[in-house]
Amino acid sequence: MPIRQLPPDLVNRIAAGEVVERPASVVKELVENAIDAGATKVAITTAGGGKALIRIEDDGAGMDRDDLILSVERHATSKLEDDGLDDIRTLGFRGEALASIGSVAALGIATRTADAPSGLKLSVERGVKSGPVPQAMNRGTIVEVRDLFAALPARLKFLKSDRAEAAAITDVVKRLAMANPEVHFVLTGTDRSTHNWPAQPRDGGGLATRLAQVMGEDFAANAVPLAMARHGVVVAGLAGLPTFSRANSLSQYYFVNGRSVRDKVLLGAVRAAYADFTFRDRFPAIALYLAIDPAEVDVNVHPAKAELRFRDAGAVRSAVIRAITAALDAAGYRASSTVAGAVMDAVRVPEPAMAEFSEPVVERYLPPASHPAAAIPGLSEPSARIERDDPAPQAFQEFPLGAARAQLFENFIVAQNGDSLVLIDQHAAHERLVYERFKAEMAAGPVPSQALLIPAVIDLPEEDCARLEEAAPALEKLGLGIERFGPRAVAVRETPALLGQADIDGLVHDIADGLAEWDSSSAVADRLEAIIGRMACHGSVRSGRRLRPDEMNALLRQMESTPHSGQCIHGRPTYVELKLKDIERLFGRTR
Ligand code: ADP
Ligand code: MG
Description:
With about 600 residues, this protein is an alpha+beta fold. The chain has 18 helices and 22 strands.
């Protein structure tokens, strides 16, 4: 076949395949155009999941007659001054969207500039232009897209149900609304419930209000603000508390220079920042905003511009990690308020209300005096010990986690502060304390260790012994002295002092399991934190261990002064707090 130039209409339809994938991509292009035109209000209406109708009305600058006619031409844009692609500050710049949409749908554009006596309307039906004709309207632009892909059954077949396409549009509008808090968004249609998000100021809490509008009050109430500038990267937004995590990444939103993006560097940085607090299969909720010199990002990678490339990914990664860890550090021992909410929901008033108490569930306040009160590993340091005749327990009520009053089921500490009851999971809490201590000790140098009087010999499969032998130098730095002892055994000479009388056998098995799991995927040196996590778990006060009141109070005081102590190292809460008024509500006593 001879080579021939493709007709423009066909070129547009091919391009439309890239730019206009589904109704949501049309909405994205059109709303971005409205924002580029300086709109302060954008109203989006859809029907039939956007397949039947998409209508976008804005109060932006509008277009004059010549621009209107040019706007639907391919590669016609008002947004690139010269031919540079390095310094893009608008959302659009390819000049393809309107031409593409016009080639695969019935497109109507009505527009009016501030100084025009009236509006004009141009129509494009499957690539064929008509108009412009006069149209009565206010300043701004109204774009209507009807019967998307109607003439392209093959494309139509790839679309999902109306409901799924409507949901995809909602997601796109949410992201645009989060990226542009100063724009008023209205989303309505026969295929959806209405959202109305009034404009918010750029600063002074405006962003947080917009995020509460879009992501829910719950998120805003359980998140901490981010604010950090490093290596020319400004990081802002809200980071969810680790206890407010989700089972998937749908509550993670990333924005770079006002654009919603998907990016591996950012995802990885967030995962790393939360690695200490959340299980691998949990995802923190986060709205992360990056501002960076446009010359430092290449947004031209993907036609729909959802992907980008950072020139200095390392700088971005470290700025994001720093911003999140600093914000979470500042949040200290705070745990998510929804935890207490869940407790309230779980508590049911027995039916009939005056059910008899067969046996008291609350243990006696003091454990029997004969109980051997061995020193709690990690709590035995003088700084942590609260002397018996030191401040009266009453004084502890002033502290955030209050004064310990009792221990239940040999694992839960009941404490009272000024106006709440606090319930603490002693094992989870202590695990976090040991973990943080460990990290601090590791940062200061080799972790202090204690030699065992008699080395512990542990039998293990040969592969496990080999992996442990290989990891021995790294483990040594963590205070765990381990060496090969025959083909199927290792000998432990010393253990981290911090762990006290740890269950060495369990600990070594656990580390061996970890090494097997991570095998070859990364160096042991990159897994030190995971190893510390396993060690902390073994070195912690087990549930089932009775604590004296002074030990309980020492634990609470340590929690208050330890970062991240609101969550255990698996991201579960270490304590819940019930306000007195909630307790009173449970009993139907309202003041
Ligand atoms: P791009 O946004 O990449 O420039 P588009 O095809 O989306 O390409 O739009 C072409 C041009 O039409 C824009 O550059 C802009 O000048 C104009 N335009 C499109 N939508 C609007 C709008 N809502 N208000 C004002 N001008 C618009
Ligand atoms: Mg555009």
